[in-house]
């Protein structure tokens, strides 16, 4: 098997975050600050990644702006020719910090909105004043000349606001709007009975997005991450396992996708303990689901196997207990019909570092 170099990486600099969204895709076992890599360790990893071929980085978390060394990290990446995108909840950013990040080489900013209305943003993120703060940050980013993406994670609590998200993105002079139906990993999987929208709302959303997307060509790019649980076929998760991108966790663990550590039986390496190139090219965990040789039936003889790569390994594991199984969002999976059977909702669990392991 020839292994191509990766083009992109998603770096979760920290799990700390001022918001407590119940749809978060971070693991339940959230790390405290003392487990995060030091500045020099991140810089070493970034140089190794650039040497391997990475050309684009998404700096994420948690909330990446809580790292006081963010400017130094952006500058290191930029010096090595890596395009930097900051994914932020924005409530901790100031006008000055945006300017210093821009000077350090930041090239794009993605601001998440938990709702298109103030009440929804505050309700979902559990942070008073968040909506106004995000709007201000979006304006400062544009003022600093940064291209802006508005990220709208969609679930039952805000699916009715999709047209308002479009209006908001236009008003804030965004270049792109990402309407991302929540992927059910981590906290989102735990809260799925609260978050999964009903079928009719999903269909209305799909019709609306398809229509408005065409109307706005040339004014606003709309990326649509479709809802897996109502699809006939899965998405090619991460473009295929270890195909062209990887994830680094706050403590330097290197993963083929953001939920990979939820798969029991796979061991992942840390970039502080093994060269990043070696992990990408020859580690067992990265090779386990690469390409299509590993696939059992029905994927093995399916015409779509090079289109969706059998879907998402993490979702397959979460629902079937077998990471090699066909993703249940596929119509050919024996579990497809059971996918939307939800557990009793109980109480929604808001993301919190100290509550993560002890309560669940
Ligand atoms: Fe994709 Fe496998 Fe379903 Fe075929 S059977 S569509 S390869 S998930
Ligand atoms: Fe891990 Fe989809 S999130 S393969």
TrEMBL record:
**Which reactions is this enzyme annotated as catalysing?**
[PQQ precursor protein] + S-adenosyl-L-methionine = E-Y cross-linked-[PQQ precursor protein] + 5'-deoxyadenosine + L-methionine + H(+)
Q: Which domain of life is it from?
A: Bacteria
E.C. number(s) listed in UniProt? 1.21.98.4
Q: Which residues bind [4Fe-4S] cluster?
A: 17, 21, 24
Cofactor(s) annotated in UniProt: [4Fe-4S] cluster
- Which residues does UniProt assign to the signal peptide? none
Q: Name one GO biological process term.
A: pyrroloquinoline quinone biosynthetic process
Please indicate if the UniProt record lists Repeat as a keyword: no
Q: What is this protein called?
A: PqqA peptide cyclase
Organism in which the protein naturally occurs: Breoghania corrubedonensis
Query: What is the organism lineage in this UniProt record?
Result: Bacteria, Pseudomonadati, Pseudomonadota, Alphaproteobacteria, Hyphomicrobiales
State which gene encodes it. Answer: pqqE
């Amino acid at each position: 098997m020839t292994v191509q170099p990766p083009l992109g990486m998603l770096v979760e600099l920290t799990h700390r975050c001022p918001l407590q969204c119940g749809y978060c895709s971070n693991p339940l076992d959230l790390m405290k600050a003392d487990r995060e890599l030091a500045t020099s360790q991140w810089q070493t990893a970034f140089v190794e990644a650039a040497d391997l071929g990475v050309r684009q980085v998404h700096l994420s978390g948690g909330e990446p702006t809580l790292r006081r060394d963010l400017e130094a990290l952006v500058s290191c990446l930029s010096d090595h020719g890596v395009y930097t995108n900051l994914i932020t909840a924005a409530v901790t950013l100031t006008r000055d910090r945006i300017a210093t990040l821009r000077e350090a080489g930041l090239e794009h900013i993605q601001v998440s909105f938990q709702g298109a209305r103030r009440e929804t943003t505050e309700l979902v993120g559990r942070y008073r004043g968040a909506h106004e703060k995000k709007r201000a940050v979006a304006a400062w980013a544009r003022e600093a000349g940064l291209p802006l993406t508005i990220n709208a994670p969609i679930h039952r609590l805000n699916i009715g606001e999709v047209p308002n998200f479009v209006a908001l993105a236009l008003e804030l002079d965004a270049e792109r709007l990402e309407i991302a139906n929540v992927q059910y990993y981590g906290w989102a999987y735990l809260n799925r009975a609260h978050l999964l929208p009903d079928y009719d709302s999903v269909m209305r959303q799909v019709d609306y997005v398809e229509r408005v997307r065409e109307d706005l060509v040339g004014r606003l790019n709309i990326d649509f991450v479709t809802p897996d649980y109502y699809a006939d076929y899965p998405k090619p998760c991460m473009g295929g396992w270890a195909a062209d991108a990887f994830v680094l966790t706050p403590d330097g663990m290197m993963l083929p996708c953001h939920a990979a550590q939820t798969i029991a039986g796979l061991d992942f390496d840390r970039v502080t303990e093994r060269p990043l190139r070696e992990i990408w090219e020859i580690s067992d965990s990265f090779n386990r689901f690469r390409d299509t040789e590993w696939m059992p039936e029905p994927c093995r003889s399916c015409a779509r196997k090079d289109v969706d790569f059998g879907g998402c390994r993490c979702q397959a594991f979460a629902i079937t207990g077998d990471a090699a199984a066909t993703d249940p969002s596929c119509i050919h999976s024996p579990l497809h019909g059971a996918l939307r059977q939800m557990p009793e909702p109980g109480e929604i669990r808001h993301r919190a570092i100290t509550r993560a392991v002890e309560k669940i």
